[in-house]
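Hey team,

Filing this mostly as a record. A colleague (T.K.) asked me to run one chain through the structure pipeline before their review meeting, and I want the input and output archived in the tracker in case anyone asks later how it was produced. No errors, nothing strange. Just documentation.

Input sequence:
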Amino acid sequence: MKKLYMILAAIAAMTFTAQADVNYGVVEVGDFDNATETYNGSYFDMAPTNFYLAHTGAQMIYTPAELGEIAEKDVNITMLSFKFNNAGAYEDITRDIKLYLQQTDATAFETDDDGIKQFFEFDNLVLQETQVYEMLDFYYEDYELVLDLSNAPFALTKGKGLLVTAVFDAQDDDNCTEGSDYAPFYTSGIRSQAMVYTNNWTSFVDYAMGNDFPNATAMLGCGTNVELPVTRINFSYEDTPSSVEEIEAANAQDGVYYNLMGQKFNGNDLPAGIYIHNGKKIMVK
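Output structure:
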């Protein structure tokens, strides 16, 4: 009889198991559709990349304040999009991309005892692909760079910031775009939340394995007070009500007593335990 009760209890628990609802959202850092500002500085002060050199890298700190709704719940990051102005190049540009994502409590880059800014260590590779930017097809039009993580979303915990490390490498050290514009990215005006690395011969990944890392100085080809680019972040999250919440919602005012497995009881003779009655939890000792 005891075994039968356990089986019935398991069936009841399965009946009231919560079904997760997947929701989708988008957060923008800066005005993605109506951005008017280009980079603030010189060509090596553009995040997440520029097409003026063969090898670039960037680190960007998106704090909970900048992430907005994303920071209010556990989410999965499914896409990062960046926008730049005037794709004024005469040729297609090919870049090998590595994207690393980490959650962080940092809100700024650290400095060493000499006041030199420091890059963060990075090792969580979430995307590796090759993209061809057909600049001629978008001549003098704005262009969107999309990094799609939908096949392997990145889980970000509620209340945490997001550290993005983006690495772009030309396949043949072809360093400069040809045209009247080298496609600077729009910026959001959030200063000093990004740092960049630029070089014609050495990838940021190789640099990170060298003796100069994590130092970021102009002598090493680094921009240290760079603005965050205008960014669109797509994410998903689940709303999973508990079994108790489902029982409460389904039987809020029907006058019947239910235990936490959804079984009905006569209110005149209740065994010890916790019950739901008219939408309220009641403990019987």
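Quick notes for T.K.: Residues 21-238 form one domain. Residues 22 and 28 are 20 Å apart (CA to CA).
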